[in-house]
Amino acid sequence: MPSDTTDPAAVDHATADLAAADPAAATDGRRRGSSRRRTVALVVGLALAVPALGIGALAWLLVPDPVVTTVVDAQGRETELDWSEHPGRFGLPVDEVLAGPSLEEGVAEGEAMVDEMEAALTERFSVRWVAPPAGLSDDDVAFPTDNGWGGPSLLEVVNLPTEQTSSVPRSWDEKEAAVAIIGEVAARHGWSEPWFDDERWPQPAADRLAQTGGTTLAEQVIVSGGLEGPTGQWLSFTFQDLSKDDAEGTFAARFDDVADAGWEPESITLSYGANGLLPEARRAEFERRAEPFAGQALPEAQED
Predict the structure, then answer these.
(1) Continuous segment of H or E residues that includes residue 17
(2) pLDDT in tens, 162-188
(3) Cα 276–282–283 angle (5° rounding)?
């Protein structure tokens, strides 16, 4: 289970990868891990990640026992600190949450950033952006979550509907140019530089070939990557290019169900989310409830 130092980009949005690999497992809750592995139908995972977040009561069936630590005060008295009462979330320090955007600000800025990326990519590549499958609503983008120590969080996780094009740049130079555009827009919003998943989280060549269709980025049918924003925000991007498929049409066959569900088999996709943002109306309560934990080392989060 990730500790407070876990790479935030490899945490909550990794649910998309689990969903593609095992949709039944994804519906049991959000996977939290220290690595990401793509599958050949990543867009299916991105689609399933949204309903997986909104499972509410089911998630609480999986919440582990509270984490309790012993604290010694200046007079040498021992008291127990029940971390299930912490209002935040593992991996997101309280100071960072309070200094970062509110839920409302984060969602609005995330939407605006994605809109800017879409406009810039359209201008450069003349792509057309098409609606995601029916049932993915812009109204349901934020969801309750646990704090990782056996209790509810005042923060909410975010997953905006995945944006997709109906075509994809073919050459590797064009794909690199598209990633550069994504990075330029993100930089204006104070985000990190983009990365490619297969460079950040290497895997054995055989696994990479099976999951992406190639052993180098230029050869792959699926190329995915991401960026990090303030306070656990993230953006994932994916290129799906069937011109790189093998002679047997392995990936084309795998994408049949994806197309039937309303996803484009050849596309650029953009997906924005956040691992935990604080609604403005809960700020005072968050500060009050976080006070007893000030200065305490954060324990490791519990397994779900």
Answers:
(1) helix 15-21
(2) 999 999 999 999 999 999 999 999 999
(3) 85
Residue closest to 45 by CA, chosen among 224, 283, 294: 224
DSSP character at residue 92: B
Q: What is the CA radius of gyration of the chain?
A: 20
List CB contacts of 294: < 8 A, sequence separation 6 or more: 94
Predicted confidence band at 135 (pLDDT cuts at 50, 70, 90)? low
pTM: 0.78
Start-end of H helices in the chain: 15-21, 23-26, 42-53, 57-60, 94-99, 103-125, 172-188, 197-200, 205-212, 250-254, 256-260, 283-290
The domains of the chain are located at 8-293
- Helix ranges (H only) for 161-228 are 172-188, 197-200, 205-212
What is the CA angle 39-40-41, rounded to 5? 95
